[in-house]
């Protein structure tokens, strides 16, 4: 780094994205993307006029998409804020509500620590139980912002929405942020709770279940006063945060409900199939409600399995956090990809 950089930036450890290697074609099961394309109807509905319209700035309010999301969940447009991926949504939340401190699980989405550092939020890590579940009572009356990924990142384990509600009730005087990146593979959405609780912020993304990771669209649903706070952050940073084409793609994708449900059910079925196959090979597989599984075998360390799979053209993710460093995280791909994965793992373990 240069000598001009601030001390804070000097100290910070930025988020490390999963590999997106360009050297050869891998079976890519490392970043929890959707193996299926986004709806053809959504893509087909983009016109030349839309592209020529790019000479204008995008609508800072993303009105058409906001309307679609509000209708979809039966909330008001003033309960919705559109962001450039949900990472931006989380960044806004940490800026607005993190100064009083933030707490989240020791094993969870790695970006929370980065945002906490970046925006000067004292962070507390609440250890998951030995079986990687959350004991909700450890999240009661925290007096600081609570952040929960549900289903949780890295483990895939989910809390029932009833438990989420209890956490929200026991934190009436601070904000609870629920990061729902994987919620559609689980099925219990916390969004309806925003009508009852004015301290709940729900963060969602089009990157996973709606196959638009590269379009970068996320959104926040919350009480209207919280949306006012978060809009103040947005308009102090980047009013035109979402580009017109991504906004239209997201809107169109949300309007193609049949295709969406089909893709999600295929992935859920493939997740169950993959978990069963891994268990047959002697793996411990955490019960996932997401589009990935965290799995380990006694026969080989997590890092070594990751490396062997990479040699064989399959990318999975390995994390060096002590509690999960003997696991690999495998994204659910197509049925064909799952078959190749299982066969390859079998070969690797047999040829050891
Ligand atoms: C993937 C992911 C996100 C970020 O998604 P965006 O692509 O920025 O919308 C946020 N939280 C969790 C837990 C994730 O896994």
Structural class: alpha/beta
Q: Largest sheet, if any?
A: 7 strands, mixed
Total helices: the number is 12
Percent of residues in helices comes to: 25-40%
How many strand units? 12
Major beta sheet, strand line-up: 2-8-7-6-5-3-4
Strand-residue proportion: 5-15%
Overall outline? globular
Q: How much is the radius of gyration in Å? A: 20 Å
* Through-space gap between termini: 43 Å
Low-confidence segments? none
- What ligands can be seen in this structure? pyridoxal-5'-phosphate
Q: What is the residue-mean pLDDT, rounded to a whole number?
A: 96
Listing every helix as H and every strand as E from the N terminus to the C terminus, the arrangement reads: HEHHHEHEHEEHEEEHHHEEHEEH
Enzyme class: transferase
Subunit structure: Homodimer.
GO molecular function, one term: histidinol-phosphate transaminase activity
InterPro entries: Aminotrans_II_pyridoxalP_BS (IPR001917), Aminotransferase_I/II_large (IPR004839), HisP_aminotrans (IPR005861), HistidinolP_aminotransfase (IPR050106), PyrdxlP-dep_Trfase (IPR015424), PyrdxlP-dep_Trfase_major (IPR015421), PyrdxlP-dep_Trfase_small (IPR015422)
